[in-house]
## 1
Amino acid sequence: MRVCDVYIEETFLQNQTLTYLCQDFDVAFGNRVWVNVRGRRMMAFVKSVYEASLDAFEFELQPILSVVDDTAIINQELFEIAEFMSYQTVTPLIRCLQTVLPNKLRPQTNATKPKMTRGIQYIGGADEDTLTKKQREFVERYKEYEFVTLKEARAFYSGYRSLIDKGIFKEVEKEASYQEADIEEAYPRHSLTQVQRKVFESVSFDSAHTYLLHGVTGSGKTELYLQWAEYVLKQNKSVLFLVPEISLTPQMIERVSKRFGKDVGIYHSSLNDQEKYEQYLRVKKGETQIVVGTRSAIFMPFSNLGLIVMDEEHDHSYKQSNMPMYATHDIAHLRSEYHHCPLILGSASPRLESYARALRGNYTLLELPQRINETFPKVNVVDTKEALYQQESGLMTHDLLTAIESRLKRREQVILVLNRRGYMTLLKDAVTQEVLMCPNCDISLNYHKHDNTLKCHQCDYQTKEIPRGSDNQPLKVVGSGVGTQRLQEYLEHRFPNAKVGRMDRDTTTRKNAHEKILTAFRNHEYDILVGTQMIAKGLDIPNVTLVGILNIDTALGHEDFRSVEDTFNLILQASGRSGRGEKQGEVIVQTFNVNHYAIQYAVHNQYKSFFKQEMQYRKLAQYPPYSYLISIVFSDENESNTYRKSQEFLKYFNDENIKVLGPSFILRLRGFHRVRIILKGKNLDEMLRQVHSAYDKIDKGGIRIDVNPMTLM
Ligand SMILES: [Zn+2]
């Protein structure tokens, strides 16, 4: 009998398959099928089909119920990637398949079907004599068409249905497909400088190899990407451009689209399921050879990839933050190997891991040390302590206020980065001095003025009610701390003639909100743009000549092995937004830690010195890139259960080459107590093998495994 092994979305199964009869069905690897699992109808993914004797099974096999797809939804390469991810991230394969495929194709019981367009098609048999003049015209016009939408048919002849009744046309359905948009303006091609030309020629396109393009902000990395892409497209191969969170870098899409015209595929998180599916099909059918997208675009079904570019490769968004917690870098390496094509990682401040690999010769280092306009912004570090002592405001020092004033006079624009949203960031009971906390998390509440609510920034908790004290009366609350809302209000008050925009998570919840705010800023509808770190990335607006970074110290204070690196990146990236045009730019960093090396090296644009010093600390503490980390978090609503789970895991864990840190309780989130173990070792393969072996033996609920975590917060 013919049988098939299928994967089903059930965590208890992990990577085990179930077997079904498929004698009466046309089914093959990569199809989705409906099956019955313990009385429930579920969608499954076919792993293999083969002949087997029914005696080989100890139980009676059930037949599959029906087949969903007539072709494989995944190719061999992407299936292998899913298998790799499953092992590497300790996640069931079915979950990885769901990540690799767009929602509409996911082997998932609640997956929705692709949208269909209804239309008609000529089937012949028209007897001219029986037709009216209009009907004859209709037949004449549309008989060569493979597909005429109902809308078009109706517009030409409202009585078109009579031709279906006569059996001359039939009604058909086909998948809705992407409508190409017209792009009129072209993004001009710049000729390369001598330095750029040298870098351009260093890349070889006929083998799998990784290049790290370390170029200061404004050094012309994008132009190089575009010219490499142009070269690859001429060879009739495809190009994949990855950017961090796309809404923050609409320019990249704009530039690529304008350079290469309307064929560019776009793939990012704010597309809806149908839009993603249409883009996916375009790549699969070879209708587009160039895709610009975020993390998940790494799974596009290219058949002939010639180049992968990862811009701003240091950005945390390249690591997925829920399961499977995969690193885009790893997948990009696999695809580069499979397609024998180069992978180019670009950044002004590469991840220490990437730069270390380049120094060791695993990657080829390409450098662009100069800005195209040859001037770096003037950087001024202002001591907030000093300012407070002089009785200025600690929020905005005199230096920063004067600098803003002069920009406003000259009709130039200003960016202010404050990495805290909300209005007041700390609230206390005036009597007891107790901080108001989220009831579900060990996190303090923030006050948001525009909707007059108290919010937790970790979970969805919010309330308009002031908490009550033991006397059942509303507490007298005093607030402190400045978030972006309060900064905006302060600026509007201080500079009544200036228009102040704000970009943070609260103003960007709606689709395309990022783009609207940035376009308004680019068109100078705002003089000042206030925002969290999201405005520090990738913006290129020539009229911005001042960038102010407020309160950089909070980031430095985080007890995470990467927080110094992140602070360095934030300053470097934010200062890169200033003075990109003809005018001289200025950057003002307000800090209590004027002499901190991350701040000093960032303002002087000394990546290499920063790298050297930070690597010494990493070496001392044996943090990446000197070791590998795996973070395992156990969570449960019950505190002692949480701890017990971690103990159970550790019971199976005994390898003297792997250091175990913890278990230790970390912040409670969303009502769940959490305990974390960190594994540290030099051999990632061995660490993974041990984790799998322990994980296989225990109850898997409430466990989150993060291999090579970007943060331990
Ligand atoms: Zn909360």
## 2
Amino acid sequence: MHTLFLHSKIWRNAVIASALCLAGGLASAQNCAATIESDDALRFTPEKIEIPLACKTFMVTLKHTGRLPKLAMGHNWVLAKLSDLDGVARTGMLAGADHNYVDPKDTRVLAHTGVVGGGESTSVTFDMEKLVPGERYGFVCTFAGHSPVMRGVITLK
Ligand SMILES: [Cu+2]
């Protein structure tokens, strides 16, 4: 009777300990990842991502919460220096749909997702060594005609 009680107590503590451990793991994973929503109204939500400098890699998930198909209202997520956003949008336009509106030869593109349509999502993980503290970075959708309005800012913390 006593042994049984002791065992159940050990089990309970083990379960609590592993639950705490799991929560800790999830918390640190969340710090190095962000989800950005996009829609049929050319919006990125949020328009700002904070990236901890402690992260070795960072994952961005792009969700398209709209209904329009990829050909009409596709979105991608392209990371570059703020001062390079217009440039990568231009070369992306020229690269066209076959290249997901990203020129593979444009080295100003630091990371990018593919293009998604309504109801779809995609993600990209990039190495934080690509980002230099003190530099200003942003993101943009380079799908035809979207770059003037679909853009956001990255803050390194
Ligand atoms: Cu777009």
## 3
Amino acid sequence: MAVRVISQQIVFKPPGKCIYCGSPGDPNLHTEHIIPESLGARFEFLKASCHACSVKTGAVEGHVVSRLFGDTRAFLGMRRGKKRKWPEKFSVHVKPKTEADRSSSLTMTTRLEGYEKKEVELDYLPGAMIIFNLPPAGIFLGAPLSDEFRVASCDIAFAAGWRERLKRLGGHVLLGGLSALSQEQFGLFLAKIAHSYAVAYSQRREAGRSAGATDYQGRTVHQPQDRQGAQPNRAAVASWPCR
Ligand SMILES: [Zn+2]
């Protein structure tokens, strides 16, 4: 199974300094992927972050992507960052159900005892993505400025056939692994995307690095490769309030 990620390449010229700390001193400024490459995005801001800042932003980005999308990227046939291959086995945490437990609903939990690690093949992964829904932006509603970042609710989108896969795993399945994802981390993840894109866009000094590249106005749209010719899956979505 594979999904087609619609993504055009947009390349922005180097800003001449780190866009986060302003340091011009690092001779090896890194290319900034405005939206994570691991999500199929190809917005590149050349030589835009220093080593120290790219380590920090990369850590937040990696944590958020792995918690929200986890191994589902592998399940859906998405590319892995830096052209790494997916492993043959994946770790899934499953809590066996008791005879009396017939529940099949989605629940939020912080009680992780009883979950056991299972090594499974790709076809056994839940194939589910966690999606955070945000409240309307306060700035448009006249709300006082605040540093607080809130998530209003969560959705989970499952790829087709999820009921059968969950059944095969034989219990409650933990999405996103054992370590938690805070709303603040998700806020930082969005802020990093927004900041880097705002700086890149405001420069208006775009450069097409390859024949298929476009500029920031979307001219000359790059035609993405159709990965294995597959169609996107229809997803079933369930919701529950987030605390
Ligand atoms: Zn920096």
